[in-house]
Structure formats: structure tokens, C-alpha cells
Design a protein that fits this description.
73% of the residues lie in helices and 0% in strands. By secondary structure, the chain is mainly alpha-helical. The chain has two domains: 69 residues, no CATH class; 117 residues, no CATH class. It is elongated.
């Protein structure tokens, strides 16, 4: 088998391993640059980046963008996956031995950092939401992750009725953050205080 492979390389029918590895690394780097360009544009406030904008930001050709991604939705999907991994650390666990006030402040502070990172991206997805089954499914999964993280940090939720549980999900989720931070024009600290004021009574 090895002799046949060496003969094929010598005859130009296949590439030496180092050349193949080099191309693979370039493909990975190119794909990563495209995703990073997408994220950079959204962070800059471009709510619906076009392929032309992405290719320019990534310093690659349009053909390269669509060689890696069939369409902009698939690019958006991979960008979502990368961002999810980047903010996973903010799904923290707080010891239930801490007082409820301290736990709530810890969770709000962690989510504030996460939501600040994702704010423009979440606003951007609103443009694509109605036409992307992937984004709708991702939104549902994200809400479940946030909800499960709350239940992990607040065992008290086991005794809550549906209304109070939903109130906590709303106050401590993206909707509560974006509604106050972006819609209400509040500062980060003001938004955290409002969220605390909305969430704290649910534990009384």
C-alpha cells in the first residue's frame, strides 16, 4: 500500500502529505476568517451583513465565502455555534449555600457579561429569524439552557408556580436584558438593578 501511494505521488496523481496538510490548514484558516469577519461586522453594528461585506472584511474572494458556506444562513449558523462556545463560561454555578441575594447578583453579573457580548448578534438574528429554521431552533435551545441554568442555581424554583418561573425566565433572559438595555436605553448597571428588582420578589 505504501509503495503504491509513493508511486502515485511520484506520478503526480496525488499530493505529498505535507502539501495536503498545508491546504487543509489554509482551508481551516480561511473558514475561520470568514466566521470572524461575520462576527466583527455584527459587533460593528452591521445588522445584516452581506456576502460582499463579509468577503471584504475577511480579505477573501466572494467565491471563497460560498465555497465554505452554501448560503448566508449556514454562515450565520456556524457563527452562532462559535459564539455559543465563547460565552459558555458565563453559565456559572453558584453554591446554594450562598444567600439568595448574593446568588442572584452573581447570576445577573455573569449574564450581563454574556448578554453584552451577544447583544448585537441577538438583534441581528431578528432580521433573519422568520426565514431561518436553524435560528428559531437555536433560540429555543438557548432559552432552555438559560432556564436550566437558573434551576441549577436556584433550587427554590422547584416550589414555584408556572407564572413565577416564567417571570424569572423573562427577567433574567435575553428579553429582559435587551428590553431594558437597548429598548430602554439604560446603562449596564441600571439594567442589572432593574433585573434584580424584577427577579427578587419571585423568591419571597
Amino acid at each position: 500500500m505504501a509503495d503504491n501511494k509513493n508511486k502515485a505521488i511520484a506520478q503526480g496523481k496525488t499530493d505529498p502529505p505535507e502539501e495536503s496538510d498545508g491546504r487543509r490548514r489554509r482551508r481551516v484558516a480561511s473558514r475561520r476568517a470568514i466566521v470572524e469577519a461575520m462576527m466583527a461586522l455584527i459587533e460593528q453594528g452591521v445588522m445584516e451583513p452581506t456576502a460582499a461585506q463579509v468577503s471584504k472584511q475577511a480579505n477573501v474572494g466572494m467565491r471563497t465565502v460560498f465555497r465554505h458556506f452554501n448560503d448566508m444562513e449556514s454562515l450565520f449558523a456556524e457563527t452562532t455555534d462559535v459564539l455559543t462556545e465563547r460565552v459558555r463560561e458565563y453559565f456559572l454555578y453558584v453554591s446554594p449555600e450562598k444567600h439568595i441575594d448574593a446568588r442572584l447578583r452573581d447570576v445577573i453579573n455573569a449574564r450581563a457579561q454574556m448578554f453584552q457580548i451577544l447583544a448585537n448578534f441577538k438583534l441581528s438574528t431578528q432580521t433573519w429569524f422568520h426565514k431561518s429554521a436553524y435560528l428559531r431552533e437555536d433560540d429555543l435551545n438557548t432559552r432552555k439552557m438559560l432556564h436550566n441554568n437558573l434551576k441549577k442555581n436556584f433550587p427554590e424554583m422547584q416550589d414555584m408556580d408556572v407564572a413565577r418561573t416564567k417571570a424569572l425566565d423573562l427577567a433574567l433572559g435575553f428579553d429582559g436584558w435587551l428590553g431594558n438595555r437597548v429598548g430602554g436605553g439604560l446603562s449596564v448597571e441600571e439594567t442589572k438593578d432593574v433585573i434584580y428588582a424584577l427577579a427578587r420578589p419571585q423568591f419571597d
